[in-house]
Structure formats: structure tokens, C-alpha cells
Write a structure and sequence with these properties.
By secondary structure, the protein is of the alpha/beta class. Helices cover 26% and strands 33% of the residues. The chain folds into two domains: 61 residues, Met-10+ protein-like domains (GMP Synthetase, Chain A, domain 3, 2-Layer Sandwich), CATH 3.30.300; 179 residues, Rossmann fold. The protein contains seven helices and 13 strands. The strands form three sheets. A seven-stranded mixed sheet has the order 9-8-7-10-11-13-12, sandwiched between helices. The longest helix is centred in the middle third of the chain and has 13 residues. The chain binds S-adenosylmethionine. The site of S-adenosylmethionine has 21 residues, from α3 and β8.
Length: 269
Amino acid sequence: MNLAFDQIGNVAILEVPEERKKEAKQLAAKIMDTNKHITSVYAKGSAMAGKYRVRKLKFLAGEKSTLTTYKESGCVFELDVAKVYFSPRLAFERTRISNEVKNGEKILALFAGVGPFPIVIAKKLKTEKKTAEIVANELNPAAVKYLRQNIKLNKVEEFVTADKGDAAKLLVKKKKWASRVIMPLPHTAEQFLPQVIDATAKNGIVHFYGFGPHRNEKTKKAADPFKKLEAKIKALCKKKKRTCKIIFKRVVRPYSPFSVQVVIDFKVL
Ligand SMILES: C[S@@+](CC[C@H](N)C(=O)[O-])C[C@H]1O[C@@H](n2cnc3c(N)ncnc32)[C@H](O)[C@@H]1O
């Protein structure tokens, strides 16, 4: 059996191919048999959707509970997979960024969800006896509840402050404040870029997540997934009379037959 599933703590979320829908419950039971830590199995009932980026789930096997505890980089996260966005597939990105943060930074962790980016960063800084001021912003009230809980659980209250509401409202109050801005909302992050540039201090770094084509849908020829986004970033910086320098880019993960999720790090001078 070669089935793709995400494991978030003790909950498995399974992608059931159309042709195997009838055997979904048996497949779920098999996952539980072979993975002793999994106590609940759900099937993806939709794509991530809506402004909170949450998907519908269909119960398949085990305990009927969507509450879970997930561990990453020495941090613990409590969350409800039915009410908030969470992806273990971004763990590499969280580690990568946490390795770049310097002592004394001021960080806007936008679209923070239950807090994996700000908390992984804060925990590392705390271990290294460094400091930082991190504002973690999130719109979904259910995610903010877990974000606050997880800040306490990981004992990083002196590093991370939770801010509930629209990122746009926070950004207007933070002009030239941030040494670093993290933007993990690939569907709509582009619309926040002008305000993010305004909120970035001289030499500050922005970690921008977006989607780009890796193949042309019509010609099927290979495409550059970064090209359009880089051009947009440069044009917006120019409009704001700031110079920007792309300092890093990578494909984060496949997204659809023709597009991939990418991250572009740029410095605002
Ligand atoms: C793709 S998720 C990323 C969550 C988290 N950073 C993670 O890696 O698990 C994007 C998050 O942005 C939040 N969001 C969407 N629009 C927002 C807005 N205008 N202001 C603040 N947060 C927003 C969603 O509720 C969601 O939790």
C-alpha cells in the first residue's frame, strides 16, 4: 500500500485517490495497525480553503477527535486540525529561517497560525541565550487561541506576543519597524507586499511565500516559477522608493500539476 498521508501528532490525514474511495475505511484501519502512535485517521474532504486556509475532514477510523499535539524542533504545538491550518511540510522552512535570525531582531511573523514559525525561532534564540521581539499576527480566532496557548506551553512569552486580527491593521502601525517579516500565506501574500515593504527597516529581510508555474500549461515547456514574483517584488520596492535585493529563493513543495510553492527572501535597503 503506497498511500500519502500527513501525520500531525496522533492524527493522520489521508489523501484517498478517487479510485480507492470505497476502501477508505480499510486503508485507514491499516494505517492505524502499522503506525502505533496514530489514534485517529481522517480523509481530506476538500482543498485548503477560505481566508483561514482550513480544509474539510471526513472521519475514517480510531478516536473521533481532531485535537492533537505535534512536536517539532524541540517545541510542542497543541491544535485542532479541523479548525486551523497546520502543515508539517513547512518544518524545513521554519528551521531554515530560525538559523538565520540574529540576536536582538524585531520580527513580524504574519499569518502565524498556531505559531510554528515564531515559536521555533523563539525557542532557538532562548536556548542560545539571545533576545528578539516577535509579533505573531493571525486572523482566525481559533488559531489565535492555540497560538497563545503554545506561546505559554513553550515558555517563550518574553519573545513572542500574539496579535489577533488582520495583518493589514498591524502593518500600518509598524512602519520601518521590522528587521524581518515572515509571510507564509502563499495564496494572497502578494496583496500585503506594499505594506510589508513599508514595515521593513533598512536592511530588513522579507521571507515571501507564493506560487509560480514550473511548466507552461499550454506548451508544457519548463517555466521559471520565480520570474513573475521577483519582478513584482522589484517593481513594488521601486514604487516605494526602496531598493531590494533577492538574496535567496527555493521551491518549497509541489502544489499542482503546473505550479509549485516557492519562497523568495529579499532584503529591503
Ligand atoms: C497558510 S496558513 C500558515 C499558518 C502558519 N504560519 C503555519 O505555517 O502553520 C496562513 C494563515 O494566515 C491566516 N490569515 C489569512 N488572512 C489573514 C490576514 N488578513 N491577516 C492575518 N492572518 C491571516 C490564516 O487564518 C492562516 O492561519
